[in-house]
Amino acid sequence: MFEDGARMKQELGEDKVFDFSLGNPCLDPPAAYLEALRNELREGRPHRYAYMPNAGYPETRAAVASDLRRKRGTPFEARHIVMTCGAAGGLNVVLKTLLNPGDEVLILAPFFPEYLFYVDNHGGSPRIVETEKDFSLSLARIEEALSARTRAILVNSPNNPTGRMYDEQSLTRLGELLGEAGKRFGTDIYLISDEPYGELVFDGAELPNLFSCYTNTILVNSFSKSLSIAGDRLGYIAVHPAGEDPEALVDGMVFCNRTLGFVNAPATPQQAIRRTAGIYVEATAYEKRRDLLCRGLGDAGYRFTRPEGAFYLFPESPVPDEIPFVQELLEAGVLVVPGTGFGRKGHFRIAFCVEEKVIERALPAFERVFRRYRSA
Ligand SMILES: Cc1ncc(COP(=O)(O)O)c(C=O)c1O
Q: Domains, the chain, ranges and CATH?
């Protein structure tokens, strides 16, 4: 889709193509973060670009732990944090550390498509569990899927591609189910919470704290979206201090960070984060875009669940097979992604991390194509 978009922009002109295909943040990083980067480069610290401990700089890990302590109330220390190459790097490190061949990882559909490859990378076996029609958790289906082979469940809230944020009550019950299943099967089942959109929460809501729902929780986080630095590849893993042997888990992760070839997370962004932990982009900028898009698509007749966070909308296609519909949107200059790749047919994903004027200009095309399908 991305390459189609680039070609179409060349052929038709930038202003005739509306590219909602990629989750690439459109906001600038916060001024304080950029200033911290400049200061870091100005100060002539020796060995700035040298190798470092595989877990990251101790001061950066301490700053991340302190921000997490403040937000979640869980007693994290630097030793519970491993700095990673984004959430993608973090997820691979966690899965490599946890999985034995054939172990199952529950993945909730719709899902970030890379999950399937990440689990496969480390000999695991993905087991897809559908969420409800409104994308909330189906605790009954999760309970049914848990078995002696389950090693972990991957939870992503706020969610890509739906924007859904799971509520505290369901997450607490999920924690109970995992605990009960672990006892029944004599295993440790891990909850991996992939939260790159954790700072992008709308309507003044608060992200439920998974650490208080279940102790064998591992947080994988990233600054890609929360600071708009996706290209700089910085993220981290945080292990619950009260989980099963957190020291052994962190040792394993540090080893895997090295042996998977990441070695360590990038040096300069880590130094900037040390100075600015707790500063993020304004979620309200994406909330405004959500409102604009939801109003326009709602008026045009589209059906969707209103996103509570992240920067994705996952509407229903007007026909059960969304592929020809997405193709027709493409011909009208609008690039979106079919839902099939995210594990839910009959839907499509709109990444609204674009300039507001792109949304405004695209709405007539969204409406035109929808009307054509409705009258056909
Ligand atoms: C749900 C989810 N997890 C992980 C990632 C990877 O993020 P990062 O850029 O931090 O590696 C993304 C990126 O879009 C994502 O949407």
A: 2-27+282-371 (3.90.1150.10), 32-276 (3.40.640.10)
